[in-house]
Amino acid sequence: MGNETKKDIMFNRMKEKKKEVKIVRRIVLAIVLLVLIGGGITAYSGYKYVKSALLPVDENSEETIAINVEIGSNLNTIATLLEKNGVIHDAKIFKYYAKFNNESEFQAGDYLLTKSMTLDELIESLKTGKVYREPLFAMTIPEGRTLEEISERVEDKTSYSQKEFMDLVTNSEFIDQMIAEYPSILTDEIKGPDLRHSLEGYLFPATYSFYEEKPPLELIVEQMLSVTENKMAAYTEILEEQEKSVHWLLTFASLLEEEATAKSDREMIASVFQNRLVKPMPLQTDPTVLYALGEHKDRVLYDDLKIDHPYNTYVIPGLPPGPISNPGTESIEAVLNAPKSDNFFFLADKEGINHFSKNYDEHLAKIEKYLR
């Protein structure tokens, strides 16, 4: 019985071992199958993702997106920029596609791209420095124009009237929507009670291209805001260091835009204004009086200077509540690059050349010398 029992035990152990081997084999087989299936699914999913990433983001989109490619930007930087702005699906795919096609020499500059552009169209545009698609029409907004003046340009170039444009850019719901969409530049500062127009100063002067006969009016305005957002991004760090806002910068810059002539030194004028703000001392700049009056005049009269208005810097201290025009890059950078000086006064002579003075007596002498 003892020997038989040992045989039985050994036999049973062998059976159990064989059973374990079979189970292990089944588990291994199952794992291999799962890996193969999973790999196949992963490969297929990867194929589908890459294929979709090679297609336009939205082939039906007519929206133009402002992109600034800075000097020295490499392929990685440009690909990241395009993905961040929603022009391409995936920066890595764009980068590999460009490398595969031996494309790497892209030009710095300002581009108006669309989500409907193919990767080849984007690459061609970035290589030539031109928008690959031909626009149906373009509209140029010069520096220093007010919203009312921009409305005239819109009416001239599109089927929209001045009233339709002004109704949109002064609509409170639209303004709230824009604040939500462009929080880096638009804040509650543009909703101050003394502001004439909330979006004054925020529609960047540039040439805008359009790819449909009648683009939505909202799209026209948003394209201008998008360029402003793109431009302001370059000044984020310095504004944070100075604890200043975009609204402050555009308001200040708009004064320079209106004061400056072709030969004016914007930076030195900015220095005068900064000295007056620190003193404190009224800025006393005539363009704010004209904006307060709401009309253009060749000459500001003494009585005009007395107008009781929040934009009249002869009456109110500091900067006006908001921009008095839409300033360009030169005026914006002049604010940030203003030199230190002891000047508190300036005047432009009959030929547009500026003369700066440290005190009022000097200023009066120069008035007598250059303007009498």
UniProtKB/TrEMBL annotation:
Site keyed Important for catalytic activity: positions: 259
A GO-annotated cellular component: plasma membrane
Name of the top EC class for this enzyme: lyase
InterPro entries: MLTG-like (IPR003770)
CDD domains tied to this protein: MltG_like
GO process annotations (BP): cell wall organization; peptidoglycan biosynthetic process
Reaction(s) catalysed (UniProt annotation): a peptidoglycan chain = a peptidoglycan chain with N-acetyl-1,6-anhydromuramyl-[peptide] at the reducing end + a peptidoglycan chain with N-acetylglucosamine at the non-reducing end
Alphabetical UniProt keywords: Cell membrane, Cell wall biogenesis/degradation, Lyase, Membrane, Transmembrane, Transmembrane helix
EC number(s) recorded for this UniProt protein: 4.2.2.29
Source species, domain of life: Bacteria
Function: Functions as a peptidoglycan terminase that cleaves nascent peptidoglycan strands endolytically to terminate their elongation.
Record family assignment: Belongs to the transglycosylase MltG family.
Protein's name according to its UniProt entry: Endolytic murein transglycosylase
Protein's organism: Paenisporosarcina antarctica
